[in-house]
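Researcher: I'm preparing a figure for a lab meeting and need a structural model of a single chain. I don't have an experimental structure, so a prediction will have to do for now. The sequence is pasted below. Please return the structure as C-alpha cells so I can convert it later.
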Amino acid sequence: MTTVSATEIQNNFGKYLQYVQAGNDVVILRNGKEVARLISRDKTVSFLTDSLTGILRGAYNDKEMREERRKKYENLD
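Model: Understood. Here is the structure written out cell by cell.
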C-alpha cells in the first residue's frame, strides 16, 4: 500500500490509477489525515462481500470487523 498526499494524487493521477489497476492500494492524505483509499474493483467486491458475510451471520461487531478487514487488506501489498 502506498500513501500519498491529495496534491500528489492530483498531479499524478494517471500514474496512481495504473498502480491501482495493477492490484495495489493507494491511501490519500489531506493535511496528514487519511481521507480516502483507491483500490481496484476486484478488491472492492471482495471487501464488500466479506463485510456482508459478517452481517448476515448475525455476528457483526463493527469494531472487530473493521480491524479484521484492515488487517486483511493492508497485507495485500
